[in-house]
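(Protein data)
===
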Amino acid sequence: MKEKISAILKTLPERPGVYLMRDSQGNVIYVGKAKKLKRRVSSYFRHSHSSPRLRKLVELIEDISTIRTETEAEALIVEAKLIRHYSPFFNVELKMSDKYPYVKITDEDFPRIEITRHKFNDGALYLGPFVDAGNIRNLMRLTERYFPLRVCRSKIIPDNHKRPCVEYNLGHSMGACAGLCSQSEYRERVADVILLFEGKQPELVERIRKRMDMAAKKLEFEKAARYRDTIRAVWRLSRQKISSALQEDLDNETWKVLNRIQNLLGLDVLPFRIDAFDISHTHGHDTYGCCVVFEQGRPSPNLYRRFKIRSLKDGEINDFASIYETVKRRYSHVLDNSEPSPQLALIDGGAGQLEYAEMALKELGFNLPLIALAEREEIIFLPDNPEPLRLGRDDEALQMLQRIRDEVHRYAITTHRNARDKHLRRSRLEDIEGIGKKKAAELLLKFGSVKKISELTVKDLQEVNGIGPVMAAKILEAVNVNHN
């Protein structure tokens, strides 16, 4: 075995991913996927192969790079895209015509749902790709039972005098053709289906829960029970999480930049997924730690996360402690498999912030490459390295890291601004014990403003239903007035 190959094999993880084998000219000659990279790639060099094709492949391999993925399903998708992108000589199993299926929501007034292996520019919505046929079957069965859409291909012209089709009587249709549901009601059902196939169970469940509560208030207990059963069915069905970035076509220049980042930072694997962290606050108030995620060089907003800092007192400023808490909370979710794991984490800051992020990872026992990017000097700090890495401003690797850093900075500022605006919109009345949002709204509706309320008497305030003399006195005391 060649010395370079032997060294590479020792660094490979026992995790899912994709491997790219290159010849002496740097050409990709084979792409494969593995449930455990170390075991799969090492197997090429442990045996004498009977196949001439495999013997020739092993003979030509001069370098191997890998892309860690969170699941085997992600590895399947990345493998297919890389094969179509590079067309490696030794890949014969996956031909250009092979495609994973999509779920298609047709572009009609009353859309239908279809399974297809081809995407067209026809105005339809395509969800996927899906690498597991069983997964699609489970989702389709759930849709047919709890979120049925029409199956007929004819143009729908609602007619109240028309008898509904057999599918309606079987519970497989909303009866749109017979005018038994409006277009808006049907579109709401379509929105449910889209959330289901996108894997957004929390959002879908929240929508259904609101309908269940409404049905219960109206004493429509049978309908409420159906909603309850639907919620249970949605939660029972676990779906593999495939991020939106995986559905994009590969950008050759992006992969070159990611390769350069890997080499510059001495990473064992290509930084396919990169997390970035930043802190935002106003003089220690409304402090938030934020994390954004980039996959194959593109932002994945559905994986962004924000954390309200709990370890600091209101008004206390400590960016180091905030980074420590944010990183620790973020990767505790990764360790319990509720969030995907990156190959690199970037901290917006300098050596101090990097040190506290390292402390958080060590406490968790989580091994992850870390760097910090200082904003003014644009230099990169690395753990256990006294000298920061200085790259030219025109270096594409630095520019990509800057884009990621700028995005987490933007997200942190937006998160903090939204929290601050929400706080400013909140009436002081809501902070009074016993006065909630509803009662505060009633007071403001009747009297106009907190200032006008401060000018009232205990007797005046009792004009609002539910406000007694004790509560009225408490309100006046809270708005800092002298009252009779």
Q: What stands out?
A: Confidence is low (pLDDT under 50) at residues 93-98, 238-242. Residues 281 and 287 are 4 Å apart (CA to CA). The radius of gyration is 29 Å.
